[in-house]
Amino acid sequence: MVDITSILLFMLVGLIAGWLADVVVPGIGFGLIGDMIVGIVGALIGGLIFGALGVSAGGLLGSIIAAFVGAVILLVIIKLVKRS
User: Where is pLDDT greater, at 67 or 32?
Assistant: First the structure.
C-alpha cells in the first residue's frame, strides 16, 4: 500500500532530479511540472538501468542519483529527437 508520504517523496525526488538534469542538459526547458515529470520518468529509467547493471542505489540520495541519471538520458534522447 502506498501512503501520501511516499507519493510526496517520489514527487520531490522527481522534481530535484528533473531540475538537476535540466541544468546539466540545457536548452530543453519544461518548467516546474515538466521537470518533475522528466524526473519521475527518469527515476523509472534510472531504476531499470541501475537494476540491469546490478548497482544498488539505496536511500534518498541514491534515489535522486538514479533518477538524475535516468532524467539526463531522457533529456539527451529528447534533444536528439527534437533536432532531427
Answer: 67
Segments making up each domain of the chain, as ranges: 4-83
pTM, entire model: 0.86
- The amino acid present at 35, given as its one-letter code, is D
Q: Which is nearest to 82 in space by CA: 29, 34, 46, 19?
A: 29
Is 67 within 8 Å of 14 (Cβ atoms)? yes
Can you spell out the DSSP letters for 22-58?
HHHSTT---HHHHHHHHHHHHHHHHHHHHHHHT----
| Residue-level pLDDT at 70 | 94
Check: CB of residue 61 under 8 Å from CB of residue 52: no
State pLDDT tens for residues 20-43: 998 998 877 778 888 888 989 998
Question: What is the phi/psi pair of residue 47, to 5°?
Answer: -65, -40
Q: Please, are residues 46 and 69 in contact by the beta-carbon 8 Å criterion?
A: yes
